[in-house]
UniProtKB/TrEMBL annotation:
A biological process from GO: riboflavin biosynthetic process
Organism superkingdom: Bacteria
Domain Bacterial bifunctional deaminase-reductase C-terminal: 4-185
Protein name: Dihydrofolate reductase
InterPro entries listed in its UniProt record: DHFR-like_dom_sf, RibDG_C, Riboflavin_Biosynth_HTPR
Annotated coiled-coil segments of the chain: none
GO molecular function: 5-amino-6-(5-phosphoribosylamino)uracil reductase activity
Signal peptide bounds: none
Length: 196
């Protein structure tokens, strides 16, 4: 069985987006290098440093399913029906997506709660990893003990306010193993396994 990983770019003060839900400078590192790479959607290409490219390639190869909340799904319009990483997206929502143009044709599942979402994602992922978007869904998964690892792409910026990495409920008390550290340009990739 693969790992469940909360994966996100985050500011020094712990935000994954501004108050308007936009990432602002948190995604600048996706275009600050010479190496072209992507996650699973070949039409979404990034240009990063060699160190970041290697980190993303290794991470991408293990990704099978992404779990996110309805807010992110709505902001991105479900990425046009193409999963941004992995082969399937599980959306945690209480609101039906009946009017979404890609409903029934895109590899997306809609579930009512985080626990059901994680069960569905693990079933789909098999022995590969499940990534969870940071914010409310990631925070809920952490508080329910459903996460194995955090992968933070720490960006040297302070946003001052915005959407917190651990969501509205804040983080639970957790301890982590020492991180794997990959230094990119204008981003430090930190991977922490949760101590069990």
């Amino acid at each position: 069985m693969g790992a469940v990983v909360v994966f996100a770019a985050v500011s020094l003060d712990g935000y994954v987006a501004r108050d308007d839900d936009m990432p602002g400078p948190l995604f600048d590192w996706y275009e600050n290098g010479d190496v072209e790479t992507t996650f699973s959607d070949e039409d979404r290409r990034f240009h990063v440093t060699p160190q970041t490219a290697e980190f993303l390639r290794a991470t991408r190869s293990r990704m099978a399913v992404m779990v996110c909340g309805r807010r992110l799904f709505d902001i991105t319009d479900g990425w046009g029906g193409v999963p941004p990483n992995g082969e399937h997206v599980v959306v945690v929502t209480h609101r039906p997506a009946d009017d979404w143009a890609h409903l029934g044709t895109a590899p997306f599942s809609f579930v009512p709660d985080v626990r059901t979402g994680m069960e569905r994602a693990r079933e789909l992922a098999g022995d590969r990893d499940v990534t969870v978007s940071a914010g409310d869904v990631g925070g809920q998964a952490l508080r329910e003990g459903l996460v194995d690892r955090l992968a933070l792409c720490l960006v040297p910026v302070v946003l001052g306010s915005g959407r917190p990495f651990f969501g509205a409920g804040g983080p639970p008390e957790l301890q982590f193993e020492d991180p794997q550290v990959v230094q990119g340009s204008r981003v430090t990739h930190l991977v922490y396994d949760i101590r069990r």
